[in-house]
Amino acid sequence: MNLPIADHKWSVKTVVVPAAGMGTRFLPATKTVPKELLPVVDTPGIEVIASEAAALGASKMIIVTAPKKQGVLAHFDPYPELEALLEERGKSAQLEKVRRAPNLIEAIPVTQERPLGLGHAVSLAEAELHDDEDVVAVMLPDDLVLPQGVMETMAKARESVGGSVLCACEVPREEVSNYGVFEVEPVDDPATPGLKKVIGMVEKPAVEDAPSNYVATGRYLLDREIFDALRKITPGAGGELQLTDAIAMLIDKGHPVHIVVHDGARHDLGNPGGYIRACVDFALRDPQYGPGLRRYLTARLSQED
Ligand code: UTP
């Protein structure tokens, strides 16, 4: 499918979802099950991301996976035998759930043969872009940013400031070394509270070297120029090709880069602690499971251990 760019609300046709990481923080579950397929209540994380991409108005989702993680793609295939069985048995709610993922967005597979880093994973998407695409969205499936809609805020900001717009969260100082950290300047734009100009970016700095408490948050709107930078970077933190280093290169060249500071929740589905919180958060809002879970948690928390 190649819809013209004008058919896309925010001129974003493609969302790149890098999902080729090894998921070592979630072993042993991720020995055979890709972390992107672990359910948040009943829906795999990758489908939650796909619905966010579709809500942004994108029509293609490039999923970058490892050779042994092809099941992530299979979640977006139709399953006619199961659909026929559910239809025959009158299970219409379940049928609707099975059909949801394939109908959300066109999922396009790209294989990253070896985990050479997030920057490398993103660079592989270039071959799948159409000529009319000036910007590409990158959404990390480990990161749930709630409430959904931050990508629209970023796209709106991009209409006024151009260049690349990224999402940031403010974290306590002692946590900055886990993230890509921004060096920022204020911007006077009453239309976008939380908008800041980025003048530098560094991956996983020591606490004393971190230029701010604003950290990269798994949502990026990147000018197509990013692919030139990705071709030039060399292995950085952890010996991997880092997206952060390519963004830092764009900034050094004078390319406008801004952040929107997200004022809401963020869950890291890539480790059990963050994943459990995401499940609790989603389940508490679920009409079927929420009321019972709330009663259980209230009673459970009043016990000693
Ligand atoms: P992470 O470092 O959080 O994911 O990468 P990981 O490598 O799976 O984590 P560990 O092993 O538990 O530490 C951030 C995102 O980049 C993707 C990951 O799948 C994740 O979505 N990624 C990372 C790739 O696609 N390829 C890579 O080579 C590295």
Automatic annotation (TrEMBL):
<feature type="domain" description="Nucleotidyl transferase">
    <location>
        <begin position="16"/>
        <end position="279"/>
    </location>
</feature>
<dbReference type="Pfam" id="PF00483">
    <property type="entry name" value="NTP_transferase"/>
</dbReference>
<dbReference type="InterPro" id="IPR005835">
    <property type="entry name" value="NTP_transferase_dom"/>
</dbReference>
<dbReference type="InterPro" id="IPR029044">
    <property type="entry name" value="Nucleotide-diphossugar_trans"/>
</dbReference>
<dbReference type="GO" id="GO:0003983">
    <property type="term" value="F:UTP:glucose-1-phosphate uridylyltransferase activity"/>
</dbReference>
<comment type="similarity">
    <text>Belongs to the UDPGP type 2 family.</text>
</comment>
<keyword id="KW-0808">Transferase</keyword>
<dbReference type="GO" id="GO:0006011">
    <property type="term" value="P:UDP-alpha-D-glucose metabolic process"/>
</dbReference>
<protein>
    <recommendedName>
        <fullName>UTP--glucose-1-phosphate uridylyltransferase</fullName>
        <ecNumber>2.7.7.9</ecNumber>
    </recommendedName>
</protein>
<dbReference type="InterPro" id="IPR005771">
    <property type="entry name" value="GalU_uridylyltTrfase_bac/arc"/>
</dbReference>
<keyword id="KW-0548">Nucleotidyltransferase</keyword>
